[in-house]
Specification:
Helix content is 40%, strand content 21%. The protein is built from 12 helices and 15 strands. A hairpin with a 2-residue loop joins β1 and β2.
């Protein structure tokens, strides 16, 4: 199909190229070979009389003309999709859909593993593609790279539908052979011990608990920094170090590792994990079915109905909403949220 000499199929390729700014990534996104995508870029350059993407250093950047096409091309394709697409019936028993989910290793461990196994009983042919979180969560969702985003509710967008899955809080975890873990965890002991914490990406951006402790002007001795939540328990075993972890994850890890769990000796706000999907998929029955199953599994987990409590001690000078606003600013400036 051509419109004023333009092969309209090339618009799909153009949208992917403008979003990914990479021939190889665009090819992967639209399931074309790299050579076919490169050929399509050549035809687009000829049609527009512009290079569209040029190599600068080790990256490809958009020309001025290409930058002006990003929003119009995406909007045209989205309008076409929403206008002509007919929602097919959804039967989980026969569905062969692949649902992509963007989530942290924490969420994968405490929720997705069990939920996906449960869904497999009803939908044996469905597939799930789990993507790690990045620093541009909502943008990744809007680009269609993921169908669902599961993250802390501070990080979701008001522009797309969402639902709260569960709440969690924090505990102190240490090796069961660590003498410091034999009794209750006091504030003095907590700050006297060495700590393991998780920070993410090239910027080593803090997770919420690490950010909150530093925000509260509390000084702790961080001896090991890890890139994942799942690695924290292994880094305290056999040592005198401790880690501050999500309670749900700590309980799971303690089932098969020599760990002792103690309460944090000061108040940290509870977190709420949410699932979000693009507004254009609000009537997608497959996605809504998956969301419903995730909610059901989240509510079935131990501790899911613990009442939500506001902080009262170290930060009683500030409201919970003010803390959320601060962390949202931290996230917007490149912070990692989980």
């Amino acid at each position: 199909m051509r419109f004023q000499r333009l092969d309209l199929n090339l618009l799909v390729v153009l949208d992917a190229l403008l979003s990914e700014r990479s021939v190889s990534l665009a090819a992967e996104r639209i399931c074309l070979s790299q050579s076919a995508t490169s050929s399509a870029l050549g035809r687009l350059r000829e049609y527009f009389g512009d290079d569209l993407l040029i190599v600068k250093g080790r990256q490809m950047v958009l020309t001025t003309r290409a930058a002006s096409l990003v929003e119009p091309v995406h909007m045209v394709l989205e309008q076409i999709r929403m206008t002509i697409s007919v929602t097919p019936p959804f039967d989980p028993a026969v569905s062969v859909r692949t649902i992509s989910i963007m989530a942290s290793d924490y969420i994968t461990e405490v929720l997705l593993g069990s939920a996906i196994n449960q869904m497999a009983a009803e939908a044996p042919n469905m597939r799930f593609d789990i993507h790690p979180l990045n620093c541009h969560l909502v943008e990744t969702l809007e680009r269609g790279v993921a169908d669902l985003l599961v993250t802390i509710d501070y990080a979701i967008s008001p522009d797309h539908p969402s639902d709260i899955l569960f709440e969690d809080d924090y505990v102190v975890v240490g090796w069961s052979g660590n003498p410091a873990m034999k009794g209750p965890m006091t504030k003095e002991l907590y700050f006297a011990l060495g700590h393991v914490t998780a920070r993410f990406g090239q910027g080593r951006v803090s997770a919420f608990e690490d950010w909150f402790v530093r925000r509260s002007k509390l000084q702790r001795r961080v001896e090991v920094v890890s890139p994942t939540f799942l690695s924290l328990p292994g880094l305290v075993v056999g040592s005198s170090r401790i880690a501050t972890m999500h309670r749900r994850l700590a309980i799971r890890m303690a089932d098969h590792m020599p760990l002792t769990i103690r309460e944090v000796p000061f108040d940290i706000p509870r977190i709420r994990e949410a699932v979000q999907w693009h507004i254009s998929n609000n009537n997608d029955k497959a996605i809504r079915w998956v969301v419903a199953r995730l909610k059901a599994m989240a509510l079935a987990e131990p501790g899911s109905c613990v009442p939500y409590t506001l902080i009262t001690h170290e930060v009683d000078r500030a409201s919970h909403d003010e803390i959320i606003a601060e962390f949202q600013t931290h996230a917007a400036q490149g912070g990692k949220v989980n």
